[in-house]
Design goal:
The chain is mostly helical. 68% of the residues lie in helices and 0% in strands. It contains 20 helices and no strands. The chain starts with 12 loop residues before the first helix and ends with a helix.
Length: 416
């Protein structure tokens, strides 16, 4: 028997809570907090550099931390010793030649294709090379954001994203990865050949390109497929011609140790945003953790393919593909979470013309903050919550793409 009108229980407690959280996310607050974060990043970076002694930061690492291995690999390649980058004793000597006080060993685990991409770095002094690397790659990241939104404040939110600070402080390649994957996906319709070139260059991090061939072939984007094969193949051929087959043998020889270090927890799992790392931190066996990670990742890949085969705006599909990629790979680090700027950006741009479901704004805020919250929570509580955030963002993007009203709008706009 239906309830009378005055007996309507109203929204549930969960709905009321989510609406209240959504109400806290206003344009003015987002702008002010973004400015505060950028100011904090600048002050933190200046203070960090001021505290350095003998070229080492308070944690005993060189400026830019991980960048030292990029510089060492470049210097060895410039001397005609590219394959030596995979030999710990030799690469350690190269790192100490770059920063004399350096004592820790940073291993080179990238394919020769990336060594070719960073080859010019060691032509500059270490600090100048770090500044050039971060400056150019950050500009490429901001160019990716420009593809998502031309709003005047988009760059402000992009720079305030905590993953940007994490990537810059580690001297890492998250900006470049975001440009290649995000730019490649977002340019698919307008510049399919250029999109393919960018996707092909992503071969330096093959774990982030696993689902791309499936999506491109299933949607008949043959120009992009050909361009990706050509650019990736050309990069591999050039690396082989310049460095020799020995460099490839060195790369494949270190892969088992990388896999072992991840499985054995020798890598900092608190900085690994995968479901594999989350389960390992909870004490789950290696095989079970990897199996669950792959099942969830494959389910996300299939759902992404279904969404790509339906009508819908490409930016949202690109964001969904990035989230599926992060869910599929068990091997990623906090600096790779710069990639989250793509799904967060397209969802934020979507908000400008369409309302989000209840809880959507709060989830975007959580996704924005999650890179800086991930490691402390993982270290203190042994809980890696980033996979849950990724799955929630995936579900939100999927839900928006599946909305009949949105589909009807796309179809009507495409009709003659």
């Amino acid at each position: 028997m239906p309830l009378p009108p005055d007996a309507n229980p109203g929204p549930s407690f969960k709905t009321r809570l989510l609406r209240r959280l959504d109400g806290l996310i206003t344009a003015q607050r987002v702008r002010v907090y973004s400015l505060m974060l950028i100011a904090a990043y600048i002050l933190g970076a200046v203070g960090w550099m001021a505290s350095m002694r003998h070229g080492l930061d308070p944690l005993g690492k060189p400026l830019g931390a991980d960048f030292i291995i990029f510089y060492a690999a470049s210097s060895l390649a410039l001397k005609g010793q590219a394959a030596a980058a995979y030999m710990p004793a030799i690469v350690l000597a190269a790192e100490r030649a770059a920063v004399a006080a350096s004592r820790g060993l940073f291993l080179w685990c990238y394919p020769p294709t990336f060594q070719l991409m960073i080859l010019p770095l060691a032509l500059l002094p270490y600090k100048a090379a770090l500044a050039a690397w971060l400056g150019v790659s950050l500009a490429l990241y901001l160019a990716t954001i420009r593809l998502i939104s031309r709003a005047r404040r988009a760059w402000l939110f992009a720079l305030a994203f905590p993953a940007v600070f994490l990537c810059a402080m580690q001297g890492q390649n998250g900006f470049l990865t975001t440009f290649l994957l995000g730019g490649g996906l977002l340019w698919l319709d307008r510049r399919p050949w250029l999109a393919g070139v960018l996707i092909g260059l992503l071969i330096y991090k093959p774990q982030f390109g696993l689902i791309l061939p499936l999506l491109l072939i299933a949607t008949g984007r043959w120009r992009t497929v050909l361009a990706a094969a050509a650019s990736g193949g050309a990069l591999m051929a050039a690396a082989t011609a310049l460095f020799g087959a020995e460099a490839w043998r060195g790369f494949f020889s270190v892969l088992p140790s990388v896999s072992h270090n991840l499985s054995a927890g020798l890598l900092p799992l608190s900085k690994v945003p995968s479901l594999f790392a989350a389960l390992r931190l909870l004490g789950a066996p290696d095989g079970l953790s990897l199996g669950v990670n792959l099942m969830v990742g494959l389910a996300a890949a299939v759902a992404t393919l279904i969404a790509w085969l339906r009508p819908g705006p490409l930016p949202l599909k690109a964001g969904l593909a990035v989230l599926a990629t992060l869910l599929l790979t068990p091997y990623a680090f906090d600096y790779d979470l710069v990639l989250l700027a793509v799904p967060l950006g397209v969802l934020a741009e979507h908000v400008r013309s369409h309302p989000l479901p209840v809880g959507g704004p709060a989830l975007l805020a959580l996704g924005f903050a999650s890179p800086v919250l991930m490691a402390p929570l993982s270290t203190g509580l042994h809980l890696q919550l980033m996979p849950l955030v990724l799955m929630a963002l995936f579900g939100l993007t999927w839900r928006i793409l599946a909305e009949p009203a949105l589909t009807h709008t796309i179809v009507a706009a495409a009709a003659p």
